[in-house]
Amino acid sequence: MKIEAIWQPENQQRIFRALMEAMARPGSVHCLGNWLDGTHGYRGVLASLLDIQSTLSDCHNLLEAGDWPLLQARPEVVEKADYLLCRGNAQPSGDPKVGTLSCPDQSATLLVQIEALGHGKQTLVLRGPGIKTSCTLQLEGFGAGWLELREQSLSFPLGIDIILVDQHSVTAIPRTSRLEVRS
Amino acid sequence: MSVTTEKMSSIVDRSQWIRLLSKLDAEQVVAEVNTLSSGWQITPKSLPQSGLAMLKLEDSAYNEPFYLGEIPLATAWVDIVTPEGSNADGAAQVMVDNLEFVQALAVCDGILANRLPGYERIDELLRQGLEQCNREEQRRKNMLAATRVDFSLLDAVEDDDEN
Questions:
Q1: Signed CA dihedral, A68, A71, A73, A75: sign only
Q2: Is the dihedral of CA B3, B7, B11, B15 positive or negative?
Q3: In sequence order, what are the beta bridge partners of B58?
Q4: For an engineered disulfide with B111, which of A10, A152, B76, B116 has Cβ 3.0 to 4.6 Å away?
Q5: Above 0.85 for ipTM, yes or no?
Q6: Does A5-182 carry CATH code 3.40.190.10?
Q7: Residues 54..83 of B with a Cβ closer than 8 Å to A: which?
């Protein structure tokens, strides 16, 4: 039986390790290409993160019907989902959950599919925990609406975490990072 | 169930196929499926998994759930595409911890349900499974008969004591 690379435990562990690094060092770009076997980065990230206890809102219908039984996650509306899969050049809709003061971890993580990561016309400068001084991130296809949504949701320790992913690579913008948009 | 010359998969309900096939030697089933499905495209529809499943029951007084124990369980759900273009899916859920075996059983389910090329060979396995199942059933009946106690003799002993 042929099982796609992203569903094999050893590849999921490697992708998860890359995600841990990305979360610990916000703005650092990590290549997942070796473990994706040609599929899009967001499928690899979801395969590593989700299980039967997770809920997912596929905001812009990026997943195929056959992906759901493999992911095992339950579909959920934006307001209640643990993970949101979104298209970066679309506008956000709905209010993702931001956690509670007693359980700030029960917030949503946005997985945003963008066109390019590590290069592109847009520039974000990140500061905060996990970054020595500042980190400059080049990217393409990340609409301003997502940053506005992040800003509106942020009331530390409450807020949302964002994972940006393009075809082959991933980076993270946790709620602890301070952002500056440069044109 | 009786063994006849008709196709087993027509006589036996689909819900019983996996139970009967799982009576056979795992290596035999895996080898047969591997030979038959050589060149086929078999992909998982959900990830094949094996592990321990918890048996949950409710107590009769408070109706509180509690875990009675655990059982080994393996599940597989596969999509099959043959070189001729036939498409089918099959699934299996068995109390074993052998992932390769449960995947082979899922393929058997798909082959039998959709009469894919070579399904006669899996049908023959089904017949062997039924025979094995009947033998087991007979053996259990014999064991039960051997342990049967004839309490009528106790009445005769009591009568002797009274005399």
A1: negative
A2: positive
A3: B65
A4: B116
A5: no
A6: no
A7: 77-78
